[in-house]
């Protein structure tokens, strides 16, 4: 049985008077790649923000090792949970190596000097994310795709057992999307737990071990893609008529829409 260290229990998530989720519970399988999918504004990003304590639940709790995440000191929590938000902002004129180096902050005692371990973590993260050739470039001069890979490198430099990423493939061309997802799968194979909000259901089916489908702030299905993804789920979650066939490369579910923009639904 897969162990669970990170879980949400009976969450009510809201922004001021707008309630996003009520009685939301889920377990994050340890050592797995979990993809969260669903239509726009269904609560995916809100859930991720709650898991990393950027949004405090109105009710319920998020537990890490059976302890409420609200009870952790900020640096202690950041040594366990690495988070890449959907729209990160870099300080003006900061350079790539400097930004990636900020991922080492949770590991540095107050007034400590930059260590050999810090240098090693940053260099390894830049190489892994494919941005070592950009080290001295100002971040604000990079393309959207380059910036996204730099942000991924910063999270990797944090060297946390958990990686939580909100739409990490945004701004990436299709080749870099697949390379990043393959990288996340490799990190999973090396023992990390990965949780990512993904827009592309076929990428989620191909790369994730565990799929969480959300609608209107609720989890409507979860499990292995082969067990939960079918035409009925796609119609319910995305309001999209489709057939689900085996991916010719991996055998995982592949969603093929049957909606023709010129003629309407086929069949």
From TrEMBL:
* Cellular localisation: Cell membrane
Question: Is Cell membrane included in the keywords of this UniProt record?
Answer: yes
The UniProt entry, under PROSITE patterns, shows: ABC_TRANSPORTER_1 (PS00211), ABC_TRANSPORTER_2 (PS50893)
GO terms under biological process: iron ion transport
Give the chief site where it resides: membrane
Q: An example Gene Ontology cellular component term from the record? A: plasma membrane
Instruction: Please provide, alphabetically and separated by semicolons, the GO molecular function terms listed in this UniProt record.
Output: ATP binding; ATP hydrolysis activity
Name the keywords, alphabetized: ATP-binding, Cell membrane, Ion transport, Iron, Iron transport, Membrane, Nucleotide-binding, Transport
Q: SMART domains, from UniProt?
A: AAA
Instruction: Show where the ABC transporter domain sits.
Output: 6-241
User: Which Pfam families is this protein grouped with?
Assistant: ABC_tran (PF00005)
Q: How does it sit in the membrane?
A: Peripheral membrane protein
Q: Which InterPro entries match?
A: AAA+_ATPase, ABC_transporter-like_ATP-bd, ABC_transporter-like_CS, P-loop_NTPase, Siderophore_ABC-ATPase
Tell me what this protein is called.
Iron complex transport system ATP-binding protein
Species whose genome carries this gene: Nonomuraea endophytica
């Amino acid at each position: 049985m897969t162990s669970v260290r990170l879980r949400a229990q009976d969450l009510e998530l809201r922004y001021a008077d707008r309630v996003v989720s009520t009685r939301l519970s889920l377990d994050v399988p340890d050592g797995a790649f979990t993809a969260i999918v669903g239509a726009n504004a269904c609560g995916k990003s809100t859930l991720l923000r709650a898991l990393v304590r950027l949004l405090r639940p109105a009710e319920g709790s998020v537990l890490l090792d059976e302890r409420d995440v609200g009870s952790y000191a900020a640096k202690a929590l950041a040594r366990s949970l690495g988070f890449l938000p959907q729209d990160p902002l870099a300080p003006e004129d900061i350079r790539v190596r400097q930004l990636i180096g900020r991922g080492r902050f949770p590991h540095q005692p107050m007034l400590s000097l930059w260590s050999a371990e810090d240098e090693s973590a940053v260099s390894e993260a830049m190489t892994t994310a494919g941005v070592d050739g950009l080290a001295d470039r100002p971040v604000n001069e990079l393309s959207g795709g380059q910036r996204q890979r730099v942000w991924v490198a910063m999270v990797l430099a944090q060297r946390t057992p958990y990686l939580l990423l909100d739409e990490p493939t945004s701004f990436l061309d299709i080749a870099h999307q697949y390379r990043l997802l393959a990288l996340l799968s490799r990190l999973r194979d090396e023992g990390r737990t990965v949780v990512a909000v993904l827009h592309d259901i076929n990428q989620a089916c191909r790369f994730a071990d565990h799929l969480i489908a959300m609608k209107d702030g609720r989890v409507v299905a979860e499990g292995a893609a082969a067990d939960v993804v079918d035409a009925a789920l796609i119609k319910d979650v995305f309001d999209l008529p489709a057939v689900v066939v085996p991916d010719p490369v991996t055998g995982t579910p592949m969603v093929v829409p049957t909606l023709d923009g010129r003629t309407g639904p086929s069949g």
